[in-house]
């Protein structure tokens, strides 16, 4: 004897199958292509902006205005007296992104912005979080690496994509 399917059960199976296919295809491809954005780090060398910042917790931040920039600059240099002059930022046309690793047990930890792009109204900022490998000679000091960069001003969401890497020293 064959299997008898009710029309309700068959409809539920078909709807579930079509829904699963739609969900999988939506996750597999972005809704719009990504366009690179210019990103200018505040430090030209391939190291963190500062290894001994005032940030006691890991943090990412997008700064859209001068008041927040003044407070953030004071936080970056909380352990320095006096802090160096604050760089000028044209907040009408650009914004500042910040990534802080929080306290680390030695030197050799770095955080660097590596790029930025936008897709639709979402900006993705990429950064590399570097850990010293076992063969690296490090100092036994507490560090708190931070990196800062400027990108063109956008009003949509900003996401941070972190890649972790281990630095192999000779």
Characteristics:
170 residues, alpha+beta, 4-stranded mixed sheet
Helix count, DSSP H or I runs of 4 or more residues? 2
N- and C-termini, Cα separation: 74 Å
Question: Count of DSSP E strands?
Answer: 8
Mean pLDDT: 87
Protein structure class: alpha+beta
| Strand and helix order | HEEEHEEEEE
- Characterize the overall form: globular
Strand order in space, largest sheet: 1-5-6-8
Please estimate the helix content: 10-25%
The percentage of residues in β strands lies in 25-35%
Unreliable stretches (pLDDT < 50, length at least 5) are: 1-30
Tell me about the largest β-sheet.
4 strands, mixed
- What radius of gyration results from the CA coordinates? 23 Å
Number of domains: 1
Overall description:
This protein starts with 6 loop residues before the first helix and ends with a strand. It is an alpha+beta fold. The relative contact order is 0.21. Helices cover 19% and strands 33% of the residues. The protein has one domain. It is globular and about 45 Å long. Mean pLDDT is 87; it is low at 1-30.
């Amino acid at each position: 004897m064959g299997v008898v399917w009710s029309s309700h059960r068959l409809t539920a199976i078909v709807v579930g199958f079509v829904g699963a296919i739609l969900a999988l295809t939506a996750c597999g491809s972005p809704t719009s292509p990504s366009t690179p954005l210019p990103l200018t780090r505040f430090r030209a060398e391939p190291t963190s902006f500062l290894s001994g910042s005032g940030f006691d917790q890991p943090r990412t931040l997008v700064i859209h205005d001068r008041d927040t920039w003044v407070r953030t600059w004071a936080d970056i240099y909380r352990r320095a007296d006096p802090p160096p002059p604050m760089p000028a930022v044209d907040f009408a046309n650009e914004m500042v992104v910040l990534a802080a690793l929080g306290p680390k047990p030695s030197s050799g930890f770095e955080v660097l912005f590596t790029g930025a792009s936008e897709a639709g109204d979402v900006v993705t900022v990429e950064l590399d979080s570097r850990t010293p490998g076992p063969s690296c000679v490090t100092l036994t000091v507490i560090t708190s690496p931070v990196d800062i960069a400027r990108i063109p001003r956008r009003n949509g969401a900003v996401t941070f994509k972190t890649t972790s890497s281990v630095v192999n020293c000779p």
